[in-house]
Amino acid sequence: MQKSYEVAVIGGGIIGSAIAYYLAKEQVDVAVLEEGQIGLKATSAAAGMLGAHSELENEVKAFFSFARYSQSLYSVLKEELYELSGIDLGFRKGGILKLAFSKRDKEKLAMVLAQPTVTWLEPEEVRNLEQEVAPNILGAAYIEEDINVLPARVCQAFAKGAQLYGASIVEHTKVLRIKKQQDMFQIETTKELIKAKRIVIASGVWSTPFFRQLGLQYEMIPVKGECIAVESAHFVLKHTIFHDKYYIVPRNNGELVIGATMQENDWSEQVSLNGVETLIQKAKALFPAIGQMNIKASWSGLRPQTFNQKPFIGYHPEDNAILFATGHYRNGVLLAPATGEMIASLILRRDVKQEWVEEFQVGGLFRR
Questions:
Q1: How far apart are CA 92 and CA 252, in angstroms?
Q2: Any idea what DSSP says for residue 244?
Q3: pLDDT digits (tens, 9 = 90+) for 66-116
Q4: What is d(CA 209, CA 312) in angstroms, rounded to the nearest whole number?
Q5: Rounded to an integer, what distance in angstroms lies between the CA atom of residue 141 and that of residue 107?
Q6: What is the topology classification, in CATH, of domain 4-85+151-220+308-359?
Q7: What are the residue ranges spanned by the domains of the chain?
Q8: Residues facing 229 on adjacent strands
Q9: Which of 44, 80, 110, 336 is the most buried (most CB within 10 A)?
Q10: 142 φ, ψ to 5°?
């Protein structure tokens, strides 16, 4: 195996794989170092909802513009990655219905409804789209542009595409320590010593040890999320239904994904009975017919949360050879394309919107 690279990306989830793809596409000699298998942790646990507007209630303009841009990249990537890798991303249109059960719910949707592409629907209009929706709704914000994908396939397509462009994907290789000697990083792994001129930390909730090794005191907070998949031959859902951070996402194979619980500082990756019960009760409140469906699968994953619930995307505050792309919390799948492109642009010294640089900077002042 090659032992020296221009860039080493530590972490092979959807973020690390997207970074490798955008770098390899520009002929940068890049390797992804993954402790297990590509996309097997948080990425495989995600529902794949690309709901940029879903984060608009509490986020600032820069975050929303970044999310919307990343969402738009999927329209190109679904063709580009399929042509290159032969992997179908499971791209599905239909939009999101953000339900309101009270005047307070509708008030919370004010920022969403202010967007020109979002429409308020009265109860009868909602039922024209989804006949089996909860009978006691006040209405819904209809976000027609939002879509969903299959996260594991997106990650696989990024990784395979990166490989076809010359990247090295190194699985089952845990990074133990990182040290900088002169202008090269010495990356000690469970298999061998690897060298790189630049490193990108993209290890999600497992990034904390690398922050500390690289002189920073930040840490990732795990937020456990549980999901279940159900199926039925009798009921069909055409749109994603969303309320109070819970959702029901239809997939192209007829399954419905119900998610997700949020348990902060829980490192357990097992699905709990309490979690499943919460999801079932919430789903039945949104879409009563779901109670007649069969449970097909259940799973959980650990979302990486930063102290301000915004991802770190950018340079180490004291060393431009170190970059971070971690802490994407609920939005790893949504933000993966824009994150990959942004990290590649920073490494290649290309222009990046200053508002994005400032929004996601890793503490301290931005350095060029």
A1: 7
A2: T
A3: 999 999 999 999 999 999 999 999 999 889 999 999 999 999 999 899 888
A4: 15
A5: 11
A6: FAD/NAD(P)-binding domain (3.50.50)
A7: 4-85+151-220+308-359, 96-146+221-304
A8: 257, 297
A9: 336
A10: -100, 110
